[in-house]
Design brief:
2 helices, single chain, six-stranded antiparallel sheet
C-alpha cells in the first residue's frame, strides 16, 4: 500500500503506511494519526480516506487551507508523487515500487467527484436562492504587487500560491545575502491574500515589521525582502 512521508523542509520526519479501508487524520492535536505541532496547522486540519482502490485527501475546513502540488484544494484524489503542503510541513504520497497504481481508475474517480459536486450545487441553488445569488457575484479583485525597488513593472497574484525567493523557479526572484531559496509565499484565501515566511536568514517585512508566521495583506502594504521592495494593492 502507499506511504505518506512527513517532511519539514528537506528533513524526513516519519513514514505512515496507508491501508485500504482505513482513514487517517492530520492536524495539530495529539489525537491525530499525523501530528504537526505548528500554529499554522488547525487542530484537525485534513484527512486521507481509502475509497475503492484509491485515496482521497479532504481539507477539514482548516484556517490556512491544504495544498496539493501548490494548488489549494478542498478534496483531491491522490496520485503517486503528489506533494501535500500543510502549514510549513509537506507530506509526499507515493506507492511502493513493487505495487500497482490505480491510474485508470483515477480518471473515473475524478469524473464521479465532479458529477457529485454539480448535483450538490444544483440542490443548494434550489433550496437556498440567496446562496445561489451570492455565488453569481463578480469575482473578487486580483491582488497585484508593483515594484518600488529592485525591479520594474507589476506582478499579478493570479496563482493560488506565489513563491518568493532566490530560487530561479520562484514566481518572484529576489537576490540578497541570507535570502532563502523560498523565503516567503503569498496565498489566496477566502478572506483575502496572506503572506507567510518560509525560510532563510533574511526575513520578509511588511510595513517594516518582520513576518514571523502569516499575516493578511492590506491595500498599499509595503513588502521588503533582500534587494526588493514592492507594494500590494488590488484591481
Amino acid at each position: 500500500m502507499p506511504v505518506l512521508t512527513l517532511k519539514f523542509k528537506n528533513n524526513k520526519i516519519s513514514d505512515l503506511p496507508l491501508e485500504k479501508g482505513n482513514s487517517i487524520t492530520i492536524g495539530r492535536r495529539s489525537n491525530n494519526d499525523v501530528v504537526i505541532e505548528n500554529l499554522a496547522v488547525s487542530g484537525h486540519h485534513a484527512k486521507v480516506d481509502s475509497v475503492g482502490d484509491g485515496f482521497v485527501l479532504t481539507d477539514l475546513q482548516s484556517k490556512n487551507g491544504s495544498f496539493v502540488n501548490e494548488q489549494l484544494v478542498t478534496s483531491h484524489w491522490l496520485k503517486h508523487g503528489d506533494i501535500i503542503n500543510i502549514g510549513k510541513h509537506t507530506l509526499v504520497f507515493a506507492y511502493r515500487e513493487d505495487e500497482s497504481r490505480p491510474q485508470e481508475e483515477a480518471g473515473e474517480m475524478d469524473q464521479t467527484m465532479v458529477m457529485e459536486t454539480t448535483k450538490y450545487r444544483s440542490m443548494v441553488a434550489k433550496s437556498a436562492p440567496k446562496a445561489a445569488s451570492a455565488a453569481a457575484k463578480p469575482k473578487q479583485p486580483t491582488g497585484v504587487l508593483t515594484y518600488l525597488a529592485g525591479g520594474d513593472g507589476e506582478v499579478a497574484l493570479s496563482k493560488k500560491l506565489i513563491k518568493i525567493g532566490k530560487d530561479v523557479s520562484s514566481d518572484i526572484v529576489v537576490s540578497g545575502l541570507g535570502v532563502g531559496q523560498t523565503a516567503a509565499t503569498i496565498s489566496v484565501r477566502p478572506n483575502g491574500y496572506y503572506i507567510s515566511r518560509v525560510g532563510g536568514l533574511s526575513k520578509v517585512k511588511v510595513n517594516g515589521n518582520s513576518v514571523k508566521e502569516s499575516v493578511p495583506l492590506k491595500e498599499f502594504d509595503v513588502i521588503e525582502l533582500g534587494s526588493v521592495k514592492m507594494q500590494f494593492f488590488t484591481k
